[in-house]
Amino acid sequence: MDQTGQSSNRGAFIVVEGLDRSGKSSQAARLLERLQTANIPAKLMKFPDRTTAIGKTIDSYLRSESDLDDRAIHLLFSANRWELATSISSALHSGTTLLCDRYAFSGIAFSAAKGLPYDWCRAPDISLPAPDLTLFLDVAPEVARERGGYGEERYEKEEMQRQVRVMFQRLGEETSGSGGGRQRWVTIDAGQSIQAVEEDIWRAVEPLVHGVDNPLERLWETTAAPS
Ligand code: DGP
């Protein structure tokens, strides 16, 4: 039993992060398929979740159909994660491995890249359920651009992506050291072939897929998260 009274063997919380066009969403889908083929209960989530009321406001902002103050949209992205925090925790405690396409690291990276203070950006996501592993799919923005070009959405511009990458690298350095013996942040070379990226991801994920014994922690805290 962990500090929340839950069984300590729970599903793993695995986050996939990266620049736009890093291959993140395709790799998350491939990983889900691989887990399901191995009969491991797994579910894929995605942030922003554009289906909720908050998510619809975010969607309209990203499509440049509406404008919002930088801080206001930052808090909405965070609120979009908070509105699903309880279901993340419940799914993990029921033994489901959760894959999450983007999470709080994107929250900091994209807003800090726009010039908002890094610590201010981190604050609203403190205490969210903490991932057991974050896979950062690293690709140079010029390589990402060559993959059929960036789309039409607000942040899909090369200079912005360059700044976002710097922020992700900082997050990686800060997160790598805090794993209690386990690597919490793994950088994957996403410039390789799809198959090579998939294999690197599997090597990092495999030790976690049969359950995790340690309690679910909260992001940027040391205590366990309630269910
Ligand atoms: P996606 O649906 O993964 O293509 O993400 C949509 C865009 O929103 C993408 O450019 C990354 C950005 N984004 C994702 N999460 C956040 C966040 O929490 N804050 C900010 N400012 N941008 C985010």
From TrEMBL:
<dbReference type="GO" id="GO:0005634">
    <property type="term" value="C:nucleus"/>
</dbReference>
<dbReference type="GO" id="GO:0006227">
    <property type="term" value="P:dUDP biosynthetic process"/>
</dbReference>
<dbReference type="GO" id="GO:0006233">
    <property type="term" value="P:dTDP biosynthetic process"/>
</dbReference>
<dbReference type="GO" id="GO:0004550">
    <property type="term" value="F:nucleoside diphosphate kinase activity"/>
</dbReference>
<protein>
    <recommendedName>
        <fullName>Thymidylate kinase</fullName>
        <ecNumber>2.7.4.9</ecNumber>
    </recommendedName>
</protein>
<feature type="domain" description="Thymidylate kinase-like">
    <location>
        <begin position="16"/>
        <end position="201"/>
    </location>
</feature>
<dbReference type="GO" id="GO:0005524">
    <property type="term" value="F:ATP binding"/>
</dbReference>
<keyword id="KW-0545">Nucleotide biosynthesis</keyword>
<keyword id="KW-0808">Transferase</keyword>
<dbReference type="InterPro" id="IPR027417">
    <property type="entry name" value="P-loop_NTPase"/>
</dbReference>
<dbReference type="Pfam" id="PF02223">
    <property type="entry name" value="Thymidylate_kin"/>
</dbReference>
<dbReference type="GO" id="GO:0006235">
    <property type="term" value="P:dTTP biosynthetic process"/>
</dbReference>
<dbReference type="GO" id="GO:0005829">
    <property type="term" value="C:cytosol"/>
</dbReference>
<dbReference type="InterPro" id="IPR018094">
    <property type="entry name" value="Thymidylate_kinase"/>
</dbReference>
<keyword id="KW-0067">ATP-binding</keyword>
<dbReference type="InterPro" id="IPR039430">
    <property type="entry name" value="Thymidylate_kin-like_dom"/>
</dbReference>
<keyword id="KW-0547">Nucleotide-binding</keyword>
<dbReference type="InterPro" id="IPR018095">
    <property type="entry name" value="Thymidylate_kin_CS"/>
</dbReference>
<comment type="similarity">
    <text>Belongs to the thymidylate kinase family.</text>
</comment>
<dbReference type="GO" id="GO:0004798">
    <property type="term" value="F:dTMP kinase activity"/>
</dbReference>
<keyword id="KW-0418">Kinase</keyword>
<comment type="pathway">
    <text>Pyrimidine metabolism; dTTP biosynthesis.</text>
</comment>
